[in-house]
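Async update (no meeting this week)

Hi team, since we skipped the sync, here's where things stand on the single-chain job. The sequence we agreed to prioritize is pasted below, unchanged from the tracker. I ran it this morning and attached the output directly underneath so nobody has to dig for it. Comments welcome in thread, and please keep replies under the output.
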Amino acid sequence: EVGRDFFSRNLQQVPRGTGTGFIWDNQGHIVTNFHVIQGGNAATVTLADQTVHAARLVGAFADRDLAVLRIEPAKDKLTAIPIGTSRDLQVGQRVYAIGNPFGLDQTLTTGIVSALNREIESANNRTIRGVIQTDAAINPGNSGGPLLDSAGRLIGVNTAIYSPSGASAGIG
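Output:
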């Protein structure tokens, strides 16, 4: 988001929020949630080595709350996430959520699959079916991060937490 400095009237970047994403391939594609980038006109991606890269939006599917950004670092800096499957998940199975909650980078939380086939609303008020519910802590900033099985393979994307109180309520 771009705004004007009140005193100098100069244009300046105003950060809208933070989220998480993961490296899909060595071509620089980064997957995140659509609601993380929604309404923004610029994005940056900070890799684990703390290098910061300008990103451009190359795809979005608001109905499923997914977006794809592209960065152009050296290809040897990118390692694609291993892909698992969510088809045979079972309630009670251990899962791990990676994210940047509250802007704190590289955080891992652990939990279990609490329920399967839940429904949530996407950013454009469409129903997303087949959602994995976990009790791993999902907080603001975790959105778009990977949900991993015990072998470290991608099985889902951290999207939301149900929290009437604003605290981690165990329903991510």
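Quick observations from my side:
The two ends are 28 Å apart (CA to CA).
The longest strand covers residues 107-121.
Reply here if anything looks off.
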